[in-house]
User: Fold this.
Amino acid sequence: MTAKRALLAAILGCGLAAPLLDPAQAEETWWPFSSAEQEDYNQAIAALRADPGNPGLLAAVANIASRLGNYEVAIGALEAILLQNPGLNRVRVELGVMYYRVGAYDVSRFHLEHALASGTLPPATEARARSFLAVDEDRMDGTSISGYVSAGLRRDSNPTLVSDKDLVQTNDPFFGDVVVANNQDSDPDFAGFLQGGILWREDLGNQWGETWDTTGLTYWRWQFDTEDVDIGYSKITSGPRISILPGTLDNAWVRPYVLGTLTFVDTGYATSSGGGGATVSKRFGTWLTLTGDGTVRYRDSSSDTQDGVIYTGLGKVSMALNEDILLSLGGAYERTDADASWRSSDRTTGFIDLNVRYNAPFGLTDYPWEFSVHGEISKVRYDSPDPTVSSTTERDDTNTRLVVRNTIGLSSSWFVYAEGGLYRNRSNFNNYEVENNYFAVGATWRF
Assistant:
């Protein structure tokens, strides 16, 4: 098996396309508020129930609720304050901001313009009101674009992902299953990489904040020596982000989408796929989010035996242990129905993510730093024996992966990072026993 075929087999058969993109996944981290903030909110609500008309308690509820993202409660409290004293234009500005947060843009504009017309706002409050009016003007065209670009250098101990065992098995036409010497070398190599992601969001123009989202992701890696295993991967999705039971079920979304992928190895075509899926998410308070995702896609490959349909399902729980620590746990299942049964498989995966945000040591930068860990373990069972390896025994793999990363925030747009990782594949055949360790450094620009 050549290095190029070994890498292609790893990408398609061992699910390594996604692991290559881990740095991209680390670019967007949801940082919720802590359970302590929720307790403050509960205490403020209890105090207000005991004294419903107290403007100080109403202001406290509005302040905490807005920080927690419970904008409807904040709106109610601010409206109650203005009923008592309509001339509080600083309160009216905050009410306009809250209406903007829930997508009631016309009502938001009314309150902001009313407060500005009074001529009584302090400079800072006036600037805040005008900034939201300016953002609303941009929103009127219905389009927003955000994303990131990242580049760097990495070193892999086994970039071709070939077995380092001395002996491997082969299925000989005359002698059957025999053991032979392994003539593949797992030499270390350096590589440069470039990756990027983009979100094109079209506002659907309703009060629930629903949008049409189109996302793009790409990753390219160029080896210094083993050039026949350069990798390119791109993925695009497009579909509406729709509120579930708006007004009844808060912070619940569903996003059906179409998707397409394209993979190159050694600048030549490797695979492409197309299909669709749906993501469902629900946030509970400020500390817990549940996410589910499922896809169905057809894959075409340069190796006809791997053409076929792929079904995936994923579930994830994200929990804020405090305002700076986010823990995610999840599981995934993937079924590959390839044209050749020995290429068909069932993959079951469990994973864990930990993100810790902290202040820069010794005040080196003004922007927070972030430490993250990703770990996963997968079990892969193939439907029938690989005819090139064995005539009787199906392949059975267990692979593990660990990625550790530290990101240094230079500003809200610029970051540098160092990352290390390991990949292990254990198999009932030496042919698929693979180990790879890597270290990478890079820089990211967000826009």
